[in-house]
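Researcher: Quick test of sequence recovery. Tokens follow.
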């Protein structure tokens, strides 16, 4: 269900965030903690998996499903819609399992230097 939610969200935003994107996913904690962790997940090096094998598998599975959407770079179609899915988790009560998804657009990956 979490995978479906994340993939359908990326499908819904489609090319708006200028793919290829990075997806920050957070599961658990309080609502505020979840939002913060989703942003923190975006700061991890691209392709660096979560140290928890179960969470790393979730990241890999969601990334594969997102790239099968066929949105592609800049929304022109293709096999690379996302460069990475980074997930963070935090303990919480099962009755209130907050989830946050943060989609990082191309402008956040831009790098420049002034000499």
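Model:
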């Amino acid at each position: 269900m979490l995978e479906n939610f994340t993939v359908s969200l990326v499908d819904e935003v489609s090319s708006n965030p200028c793919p290829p994107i990075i997806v920050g996913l957070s599961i658990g904690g309080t609502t505020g903690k979840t939002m913060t962790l989703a942003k923190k997940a975006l700061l991890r090096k691209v392709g660096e998996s979560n140290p928890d094998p179960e969470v790393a598998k979730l990241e890999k599975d969601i990334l594969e499903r997102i790239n099968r959407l066929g949105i592609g770079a800049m929304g022109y179609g293709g096999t690379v819609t996302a460069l990475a899915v980074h997930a963070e988790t935090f303990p919480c009560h099962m009755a209130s399992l907050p989830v946050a998804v943060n989609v990082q657009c191309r402008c956040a990956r831009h790098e420049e230097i002034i000499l």
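The longest strand covers residues 82-90.
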